[in-house]
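If you are new to this repository, start here. Below is one unmodified record pulled from the training split, so you can see the exact layout before writing a loader.
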Amino acid sequence: MLTIHAAPLVLPVGAAAVEGGAVAVDGDRIVAIGPYDVVTAAHPAARVRQWPGVLTPGLRQWDAVPLLTRFYHSDPREADELGEQPLTVADFERLAGRMDEPRRAGSVRRGLQRMLSRGTTHVAGPFDDHAVRTAVARSGLTAVAGAPGGLPGEPDLDPFARGRDLPGSVHAPLTVGGRADLAVFDVPDEAAPAAAGAGTCVATVLGGRLVHRRR
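And here is the target side for that same chain:
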């Protein structure tokens, strides 16, 4: 179904911002970007999704490999014991003796869901672990080449921690004919997504599919 995603500010990156903008999506492709009135007039039968804040391209997660293989993303039912935040390397190693394959697979799935909830649409590999590679493929996230040897510093679920600003954090600009990978952040202006962080994400569209929506 043809869908229009509208927001007070659309930031294609690499092109001028559009106030009161909209992006029309057909299948997994973008078919129009522009002012809301123009896009809806050209596609009167489209379903319209109105979002708050800023609509941008989807983000790229450079730290996907360590976040999925060296961190433990606990089940909500484990919150009393382990807390709600991902357990980092030292804690992950402490749990190693209790980490059977189903538990590890659950952690990977929850890690991917957390990435999607932060506007991530592309994850940097390579994913040498078969179970992780399979989970990434099933998630619909696009795997891209990572930095040789990884990046220094502590991995972070927020893609802006590595990218610093919006142009440095997206995988590619929004273009007509390009793949419909979008993120929406409930923030007031162009600088705010990076400043406030990807935790402000309210929606993620992956290849035209709405895969995350904050309730």
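Two things worth knowing about this chain: Residues 60-162 form one domain. The chain is about 30% helix and 25% strand.
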